[in-house]
Amino acid sequence: MPANLRRQGQQWIVCQIGAREHYVLAAELHRRGQLAVLCTDIWASEGSLWKIVADVFGARGRKIHERYEPALRNARVFSEWPISLRPQVHGLARGHWNWDRILLANRRFAASMARRLERSGVLRSHAEGDPAVVFAYSYAAREILETAKRAGCIAVLGQIDPGPEEHALIARVAERHGHSADPALHPPDRYWNEWRRECALADIVIVNSSWSASLVARAGISDKKIRIVPLAYRQHAALDPQPPRVYPDVFSASRPLNLLFLGQLNLRKGILELIAAMHRLSGAPVRLRMVGPLDPSFRTHFALPSNVEWVGAVSRSAVKAYYRQADLFILPTHSDGFAITQLEALAHGLPVIASRYCGDVIIENQNGHFLEAVTADAVEKQLRWALDHPKALACMSVRGPACLLAYAPERVVDALLAAVSSVRR
C-alpha cells in the first residue's frame, strides 16, 4: 500500500459480485485508508486479463470495461480469472432464470474468495488489533462469512433485496393480475436456505430501507441484527454542468411531458400498472420512455400503446442521456430494497414519482410525489397532476439535487461504521 494511503482505523474487506453502487462503498473506505481488500468477480484494471478480454470484444466488451473504478486504482483487489466465469456468466437460460446456474455462480464466487482471503493472510493480519470487518453481499456470502468468523472477524451481510417475503408479495401481485405462477421465476428452497445460513453467520444484516427491514424481519430474521443504512451515491464530476431544465407553460402535443422509467421491465417494478395508466392517457400530451431489459417471462404480457417507447438495455455510460432528455422520473415499484435510480434521477434534476415500497428518498412536494398505491388509477392521477403543474415540476427539479447530501458516501459510510461499532465482541 502506498505511503500516502496508510491504514487508519478498522480494516474492511468488501466482497461483491458485479459493480454494485459503482464500487462506491469500497472507494470511500479506500479513501479513508480502511479498505484492506476488494473481492469481486470482474476487475478490468489496466493491464489485467479482464481488460484484454474487453478490448478483444470491442463494443461488446463495454460492460466489462465498466467493471473498474479509477478511485480504486491503488487498492488491493482480488478478482476471478476470466476462464473461471465462462460456465455461469448469465443467470438466464431459454427465457427463464436458471437457478442452478445462479446458485453455482454464487457458491463458486464465495468459495473462491474465501480461499483467497484465507491464503493471503489478510484476515490473520488484524488479529492483534481491532478485528477486521468482512462485508459480503447476500446470496454469495456464506463461505466468506464462515471464513471470517473462524478468523475472529466481524461478519456483516449486505442484504441486496427484501428477501423471501418480497417473492411472496410479488406472487400475490401476479395472482391479482391473473398471471399463472411460473415456477422457474421463483428461487428454490435451497436458495433461501443458503440465505438463512448467511443471516445466522452475520453479526449484523445491513438493509437499505425501512421497507426492506420490515420484510426481512417478517422472514424471521431478528430485528436485533438488522440495521438500516441507505445506498451511497456520489454525484460524479462526469455530470457536466447543465442549465436549469426548461419546462413549458403548458404541455402540448408539440412539447409533451417526457416521462422516464429506468430499470428491469417486470411485474415487480409496477410495469403493468404503468402501461395501463399510459393507455388511459393516450390522448394526453405525455410520452413514456422505458429503458432497461425486459424480463423474458414478461414478454407475453407486454403490449405497448403508441405513447410508450421501449429502448431496451443500455450501458451505464449511456444512461445519463436518457435522464437529461426527460422531464419526470417514475418508479411504481411493488417492492425494492432501495432503487438507486431515484438518486440518479435527482442528480440529473428530475422530479420523482415513486411508490413507498423502496428507499425513503422522496420528500413530498419538494423533490417529487408518492403514489398513493401501486395501481393504474394512482399512476394516472399523479401523471395528470404533473401535466397540469409544469411550474411545480420546474421547482422540484431545482430542489432535487440538494437532497442527495444525505446519501453522500461520506455520510453513508459513517452510518455503516456506526452500525458495526454496535456489534458486541
Q: Which structural class matches the secondary elements?
A: alpha/beta
Q: What is the CATH C level class of the largest domain, in words? A: Alpha Beta
**Average pLDDT across residues?**
89
Q: Which H/E pattern describes the elements?
A: EHEHHEEEHEHEHHEHEEHEEHEHEEHHH
Assign the CATH architecture of the largest domain. 3-Layer(aba) Sandwich
Low-confidence stretches: 1-7, 86-95
- CATH H-level superfamily of the largest domain: Glycogen Phosphorylase B
Counted up, domains total 2
Question: What does this entry show, briefly?
Answer:
By secondary structure, the chain is α/β, with parallel strands linked by helices. It folds into 2 domains: 3-234 and 408-421, Glycogen Phosphorylase B (Rossmann fold); 257-406, Glycogen Phosphorylase B (Rossmann fold, 3-Layer(aba) Sandwich). The protein has 14 helices and 15 strands.
Describe this entry's structure for a reader.
It is a single chain. With about 425 residues, this protein is α/β, with parallel strands linked by helices. It has two domains: about 5-235 and about 410-420, Rossmann fold (3-Layer(aba) Sandwich), CATH 3.40.50.2000; about 255-405, Rossmann fold (3-Layer(aba) Sandwich), CATH 3.40.50. It contains 14 helices and 15 strands. The strands form three sheets. Strands 3-2-1-6-7-8-9 form a seven-stranded parallel beta sheet, sandwiched between helices. Helix 9 (about 270-280) links the parallel strand 10 and strand 11. It is globular, with a radius of gyration of 22 Å. Residues about 1-5 and about 85-95 have low confidence and may be disordered.
